[in-house]
């Protein structure tokens, strides 16, 4: 397949950040089945891999893709730029199709770009970020996170913040469900194909699990904590004194 280059600014109305979409030029790069011995390249950020063909990189206001084993600083295969601040990038695999590169921005926008063509596949909106910005070495405890959950069939894109969770169908951007925490705060979030796990802090710590596609609560676990607030320790074992 050969894609034409389409570059230009997109104006989506008053108050909406301007975006610049440059679609793919040339053929889809070949899949790299085995890394080439001795291949090394310096990159401006930690890349994500898409389809074993592309390395996906990000900067403060831009996401772009390069052939996986291209030399240093090649022309971008495709790029997406936005008059906002990039928060996180993730890759959502699609059975039988090229993956989507999903980016979360500080204004709450979710943008999904087709990895093969560079065209914007869908757009969605989540609540505006309370703070934070792009880092090429993100801490897993950051307030804002974008998680891709397999979810069975089409994957699920989860925006996880201290105040709650917002879930979208990663195949087309449809909102699926949202959960805002009663106490307004949560800690870490983890995701697997069958569940989303949230460590919530209210009057007492709770571990809550949700179905990734429906948002149905599966279980709630309230670990028992002693008055000291520290986990109980096992008493030291003793042995008879020898004579």
Automatic annotation (TrEMBL):
Skewed-composition ranges (Pro residues): 224-234
Any matching Pfam family: PQQ_2
Protein name: Pyrrolo-quinoline quinone repeat domain-containing protein
Annotated stretches, region: Disordered: 1-33, 122-142, 212-243
Native organism: Streptomyces sodiiphilus
Pyrrolo-quinoline quinone repeat domain boundaries: 45-217
Gene3D superfamilies listed in its UniProt record: YVTN repeat-like/Quinoprotein amine dehydrogenase (2.130.10.10)
Origin organism lineage: Bacteria, Bacillati, Actinomycetota, Actinomycetes, Kitasatosporales
């Amino acid at each position: 397949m050969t894609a034409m280059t389409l570059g230009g600014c997109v104006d989506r109305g008053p108050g909406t950040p301007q975006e610049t979409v440059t679609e793919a030029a040339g053929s889809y790069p070949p899949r790299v089945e085995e890394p080439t011995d001795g291949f090394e390249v310096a990159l401006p950020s930690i890349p994500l891999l898409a389809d074993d063909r592309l390395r996906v990189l990000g900067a403060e206001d831009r996401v772009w893709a390069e052939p996986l084993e291209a030399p240093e600083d090649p022309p971008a295969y495709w790029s997406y730029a936005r008059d906002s601040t990039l928060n996180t990038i993730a890759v959502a695999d699609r059975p039988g199709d090229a993956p989507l590169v999903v980016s979360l921005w500080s204004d709450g926008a979710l943008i999904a770009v087709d990895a093969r063509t560079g065209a914007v596949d869908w757009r969605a909106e989540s609540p505006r970020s309370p703070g934070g910005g792009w880092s090429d070495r993100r801490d897993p405890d950051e307030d804002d996170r974008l998680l891709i959950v397999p979810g069975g069939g089409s994957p699920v894109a989860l925006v996880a913040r201290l105040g709650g969770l917002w879930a979208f169908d990663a195949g087309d951007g449809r909102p699926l469900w949202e959960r805002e925490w009663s106490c307004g705060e949560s800690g870490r979030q983890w995701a697997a194909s069958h569940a989303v796990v949230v460590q919530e802090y209210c009057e007492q710590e709770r571990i809550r699990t949700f179905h990734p596609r429906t948002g149905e609560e599966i279980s709630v676990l309230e670990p028992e904590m002693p008055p000291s607030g520290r986990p109980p320790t096992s008493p030291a074992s003793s042995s008879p004194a020898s004579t």
